[in-house]
Fold:
Amino acid sequence: MSDPLLFDVSGGIATVTLNRPDKLNALTTSITGAFLDILKTCARDDSIRCVVLTGSGRGFCAGQDLEEFMSVQGEWSVSDHLRRGYNRIISGLWNLEKPVIGKINGVAAGAGLGLALATDLRIASDQAAFTAAFIGIGLVPDSGVSWFLPRLVGQATAFELLVSGEKVNADRALQLGLVNRVVPHDALDAAVAELAQHLAAGPTRGIGLTKRVLHKTASLSLAEALEYEALVQDIAVNTNDHREGVAAFLQKRQPQFQGR
Ligand code: T3D
Structure:
């Protein structure tokens, strides 16, 4: 049997591939455990400067594996399962101070939608689709979907998508602001590779701190946000990449960022 979760690091880019194509990469407990280990590696390994999350075959991720879910009914409390697995993965992606690209190759459903929305930039194939899916099995949104969705598309549209379970195609996802860009399916690999290489050659610490500031200021007043920006700028100004960026500008050359 092939590994249901693939991890490859090359040229500063870590690629995490959900690899159960026959099941549209539905998630099992063993996959979520391995995913959490990979996230720790991504956080600790300074040579990793960009992360790409994708799925193999025609799906991105169909959420919780419903066969596993049925087979363990009564063995686990759903809330504990969420706390131990999906909640930590979603927080791990969100709090990782490195850019994370969602390479949305196909359908993202349920917790798979949560995974997609927890990435920082989503590049979708024109064959991608998005569905909350929870309501189809009588569940409420989890894996951060109730948090991400209204922030991206507004309350009314979020409610509509959640209670209808509508499958949104890539073009509508772009209109709604669910993805950054849609590309022809055959061009997805190249588009994501180009973006990932660009980000992996960037000032990783500055990008990570930008992520931190953006997340934090979302829940602050303007006065608090100004103060928080000032505090974090004190950190950024002490990075080598800041010094390199200024030197390159003054010397009229391209900067060579090292990510620290
Ligand atoms: O504690 C907890 O874990 C609770 C947490 C829950 C989080 C959740 O994620 S709840 C939501 C779970 N996901 C779903 O309800 C989605 C179920 N899947 C679908 O609705 C559809 O498959 C899709 C809309 C995603 C795609 O439809 P389509 O027509 O393109 O594909 P398909 O034919 O339905 O699926 C292809 C195969 O994948 C099929 O297998 P088969 O018949 O060829 O052997 C199908 O059964 C399998 N598959 C798809 N999704 C899942 C799945 N198998 C297991 N679990 C799935 N979630």
User: Anything to note?
Assistant: Residues 73 and 123 are 36 Å apart (CA to CA). The beta strands are 5-10, 13-18, 50-55, 59-61, 100-104, 107-109, 121-125, 129-131, 168-169, 181-183. The chain has twelve helices and ten strands.
